[in-house]
Amino acid sequence: MNVWQFLLHNHAEVLELTLEHLWLVGVSTLLAVAIGIPLGILLTRRPAWEKPVLGGANIIQTIPSLALFGFLLPAPWIGERADRLAILALALYALLPLIRNTYAGIQGVDRAVVEAGRGMGMTSRQLLFQVELPLALGVIIAGVRVAVVISVGLATIAAAIGAGGLGEYIFRGLSMVNNQLILAGAIPAAALALTADFGLGWLEKRLQLR
Amino acid sequence: MPAPVDHSPAIEFRGVSYRLPNGRALLQGLNLAVRRGQTLVLLGRSGSGKTTTLKLINHLLAPGDGEVRVEGRSTREWDVIRLRRRIGYVIQEVGLFPHFTVERNIALVPKIEGWPQERIRLRVLELLALVGLDPQLAARYPRELSGGQRQRVGVARALAADPPILLMDEPFGALDPITRAELQREFLALQRRLRKTVVFVTHDLREALLLGAHIALLEDGQLLALHTPEEFRKSREPMVMAYLAAFDSAGGAGERGQP
C-alpha cells in the first residue's frame, strides 16, 4: 500500500488528525498574536525594553522543542492536558517573529508621516490605530506567516507528548520503521504549511501595495 | 474695520534655549515675536536651529529654558493636542498618509475634531479649489500625484480646520524650480486672502525675501538679525552681508528659473 492509498483508505482519521493539527496551530497562533503584537507595540513606546524582551523571546526560540514540552509538564493546569501544554509551547515559539515584526514594522513607518500626524494634533492612540498599525500591517502579517509556518512544523512534535495532530503518524511510523506512515503524517503537514505560507503571503503582498 | 486690531503677538519666544540630551545647544536665548496675520521667515543654513524653533511652537519639542507663548499662553500650559489642532503644519517631506486618499488626508483634522460628514466633504472640495487642485483628485492616493500636487495637498490638509497659525518647514524645498515658483506665488495670493500667522522655514534667501514680512536670520542656534526684506537687503550688518555674499557666490544655490 503506498502513501496515497493509505491516506485515502484512512481519510476519516487523516481528517481528524489534520483538524487536531489545525487546532493546535490556530489556537497557539491566536494566543501568540494576542500577546506578541501588543508587546511589540509596547516596545515602540518603551525602547529601553527592546533588548530584554527580544532577548527573552530569542532565548525561548533556542530551547529545543521536546525540552520545552518537558519543562512545561509540571506546570499547574497547563500540564494537565497535553493539548494545553502543546498550545502554550507553540505560542511561546511564535512570539519572537510576532514581537520582532510588530516592532520593526512600526519603527519602519516613515518618520515624516508620523511627525506630520503628531504635529497636527493626533493623539498617541489615533496615531497608532490610524497610521502606525495600518502602515505596519504588511510587516506584521509577514511575522504571522513565519510564526504559522514554524508552528505547523513544530506541532508534529506535540504528538510526542500525546497532544495529537499529524505527528501521530510520524511517531507511529518511526517506532514501526514504516516510511509510508511517516509520509502519511509529513505530507499533509507540509501541505498545511505551504497553504498557510501561500495564503498569508498573498495577504501580505496585498497589504503592502497600499 | 470696526473690530479693534489685536496687536499682541500670536507667537512669542522669551529667552528660549533648547539642548539635546547630550548637552549640545541647538538654540540659545531666543527672543522673537510673530505678529498676527504676518509671515515670519526663519532663514539660515542647515543646523542653524530653524526647524528646532518651529517644533518648539507646536510643542513637538519642549523648551529647556525660557518659554514659548502661543496666543498669550505658554506651550507648557496648553493642552498639547488642542494647541496642535490650532496650528497647521506643513513639512518638506509632506508627510501625507500613503494609505489615505487625498480626501481623507485633507479631512484628517476635521475628522478627529468630530465635524459632521457633510461639512467635511464640502470643506475638502473648498480646500481643493483653494490650493488649485482638480476635485477629481480627491479619490486618488498620494503616490499617484506629482510632487507639486502632493505639496498642495499638504497645504490643504494644514488649512483644513482653519487654524489661525501655520508652520511651514521648507515646504517647497524638494520641488523643481518652476513648480516651486508657482507654489510661492500661490502662497502669496493665499496669504493675502487668509491672513494667517505663518512661520516659514527656508535656507533659500530669495524665497525668504519674496515671502516674508519679516526675516529672522539664524546661525548656530542664535538670532543674528530680524528685518523686513527691504531692511535685509540694505543691511550693513556683517553677518547679514556675509549671508548675502555666501548666497550669491553659491550661485543662488540653483535657484534659477524664478521670477
Descriptive report:
- The complex is a heterodimer of chains A (210) and B (259).
- Chain A has 210 residues and is mostly helical.
- Chain A contains nine helices and no strands.
- Chain A is elongated.
- The termini of chain A are far apart.
- In chain B, 36% of the residues lie in helices and 23% in strands.
- Chain B has 259 residues and is of the alpha/beta class.
- In chain B, strand 7 (165-169), helix 7 and strand 8 (197-202) form a beta-alpha-beta unit.
- A six-stranded mixed β-sheet of chain B has the order 6-7-8-3-9-10, sandwiched between helices.
- Chain B contains ten helices and ten strands.
- At the A-B interface, helix 6 and helix 7 of A face helix 2, strand 6 and helix 4 of B.
Topology:
The complex is a heterodimer of chains A (210) and B (259).
Chain A: H1 3-9, H2 11-45, H3 50-62, H4 65-72, H5 82-107, H6 111-119, H7 124-155, H8 167-175, H9 179-208
Helix pairs in contact in A: 1-9, 2-5, 2-7, 2-9, 3-5, 5-7, 6-7, 7-9, 8-9
Chain B: E1 11-19, E2 25-34, E3 39-43, H1 50-57, E4 65-70, E5 73-74, H2 80-85, E6 87-91, H3 102-106, H4 108-112, H5 117-130, H6 147-159, E7 165-169, H7 177-194, E8 197-202, H8 205-211, E9 214-219, E10 222-227, H9 229-234, H10 238-249
Parallel strand pairs in B: 3-8, 3-9, 6-7, 7-8
Antiparallel strand pairs in B: 1-2, 1-4, 4-5, 9-10
